[in-house]
Amino acid sequence: MPNFPASFLLNRDYGQLAVSILFIYVAYRLFSYRCQLPPGPKPLPVIGNAHQMPTLCPEETYQGWQKEYGDIVHVRIFGSNMLILNAFQPAHELLEKRSALYSDRPRFVLFNELMGWYNASTHVQYGPRFRKHRRFIHQTFNEQAARSLRPIQEREALTLIRGLMESPEQYSQHIRRFELSAERAGSLTVQSGTPASTLVDFFPIIKYLPEWAPMAEFQRNARVVKQAVDDMMNVPFETVRDQMKAGTVSSCLTSRLLELFGESITFQDEEDIKGTTCVLLSFILAMVLHPHVFEETQKEMDQVIGVGKLPTLEDRRRLPYLECVLKEVYRWNPPVPLGLPHRLMQDDIYNGYYIPKGATILANIYAMLQGCSDPKTFRPGRYSEPESVLDCLDPQEVVFGFGRRRCPGRYFADTGIWLVVANLIASTNIAKAQDEQRREITPEVEFKTGFVRHPQSFPCSITPRSDEMRNLIDKYCDSDGSA
């Protein structure tokens, strides 16, 4: 072997290093050229797109971006990547088909603090603990298991309707009665903004600021909201458990879960089924604004079930127009318009776009359901008319989320909504309220911005269809439900 001088070997090493660096640079440039980030609004240095992120009705702003940038929109907020999916196809491809990569949740600081989830020991990321919780919820709320809870749902639906008959002006309170203190907690949480809408989410260090410090207003709000959320979660659960021990409890979902799983269950083990209140309020508002739709549903109900009778879940397949009405309610005002955010667990590529690990993924359900013809019009017939049925995405495929993070209580929630709506149609008349001069009041179509898209309070008239129906509801509510 030739005896090369040390300087030659040293130069050779530098040469190899230079070639390696050049190779890496060229490969990076090729990769960057072929796999760019998805398009989006132009960011500023350091803050990125933070100044462009909406705090009011973000789903509508993101839908507007769809027209300019396409179905996938990328934004950067203080160095954090976020993708907004405005169409069903990319959401289905990424969150469903690639759910193993997209099933984690980002840690939004303020939202998690409010819900008591920020601590690493309680934050359920995708993994063994998540799968354990998911398995428990699935065993309780899957389509087959939820059938055992139907008697409770049927009874509660009729109890709700009796309350609406007795004091219809309090319709909103009756719908929210299960939540006890949740109305205050929910409204405060909504006011605190959607996840990723506050500065602390992108600068977590400022959560340690004292309440009196500048930029620490979120701390003062969070303390008030967290107490309301804690009361919402703990008071009803503890009350039911104490009543069970005393032998005075009435049958309800919580008592049913305690009977099935005993003291091993805690409130944190229960999955919150969100959006039911929103859907029911949206249905009532839609019927007030579109009396011809309500008349059509009553006509179908009378023909299939009979006048003076109440429907059961066994009748659902025989009421196709009612099914179209429910789908249109879901589409017209999706309860959680941006769903719950997902987090990508490793780098991915989709349609030539590079999606970096750790990116937050938002599915804009609102935009997906607005992608049909004449989207602002409430028209249930779009799901049965041959010329328009192919133009419509089935809302029930998207309103409960995507992939392994899809709402596990969707069957239970959908069943409860159907029972209330069907029995309202059979037993009551829903119409516009009247003022002192007996003039009809047409409510404005307005929604509260936030995590859940609730309709703003509106006047309406809810009356029994007949004394016979009022007596029938009373008979069911005062008996064991077998009347």
Automatic annotation (TrEMBL):
<keyword id="KW-0408">Iron</keyword>
<keyword id="KW-0503">Monooxygenase</keyword>
<feature type="binding site" description="axial binding residue">
    <location>
        <position position="407"/>
    </location>
    <ligand>
        <name>heme</name>
    </ligand>
</feature>
<dbReference type="InterPro" id="IPR001128">
    <property type="entry name" value="Cyt_P450"/>
</dbReference>
<dbReference type="GO" id="GO:0016020">
    <property type="term" value="C:membrane"/>
</dbReference>
<keyword id="KW-0479">Metal-binding</keyword>
<dbReference type="InterPro" id="IPR017972">
    <property type="entry name" value="Cyt_P450_CS"/>
</dbReference>
<keyword id="KW-0812">Transmembrane</keyword>
<dbReference type="GO" id="GO:0004497">
    <property type="term" value="F:monooxygenase activity"/>
</dbReference>
<dbReference type="InterPro" id="IPR002401">
    <property type="entry name" value="Cyt_P450_E_grp-I"/>
</dbReference>
<dbReference type="InterPro" id="IPR036396">
    <property type="entry name" value="Cyt_P450_sf"/>
</dbReference>
<comment type="similarity">
    <text>Belongs to the cytochrome P450 family.</text>
</comment>
<keyword id="KW-0349">Heme</keyword>
<dbReference type="Pfam" id="PF00067">
    <property type="entry name" value="p450"/>
</dbReference>
<comment type="pathway">
    <text>Secondary metabolite biosynthesis.</text>
</comment>
<keyword id="KW-1133">Transmembrane helix</keyword>
<dbReference type="GO" id="GO:0016705">
    <property type="term" value="F:oxidoreductase activity, acting on paired donors, with incorporation or reduction of molecular oxygen"/>
</dbReference>
<dbReference type="GO" id="GO:0020037">
    <property type="term" value="F:heme binding"/>
</dbReference>
<keyword id="KW-0325">Glycoprotein</keyword>
<protein>
    <submittedName>
        <fullName>Cytochrome P450</fullName>
    </submittedName>
</protein>
<keyword id="KW-0560">Oxidoreductase</keyword>
<keyword id="KW-0472">Membrane</keyword>
<dbReference type="GO" id="GO:0005506">
    <property type="term" value="F:iron ion binding"/>
</dbReference>
<dbReference type="InterPro" id="IPR050364">
    <property type="entry name" value="Cytochrome_P450_fung"/>
</dbReference>
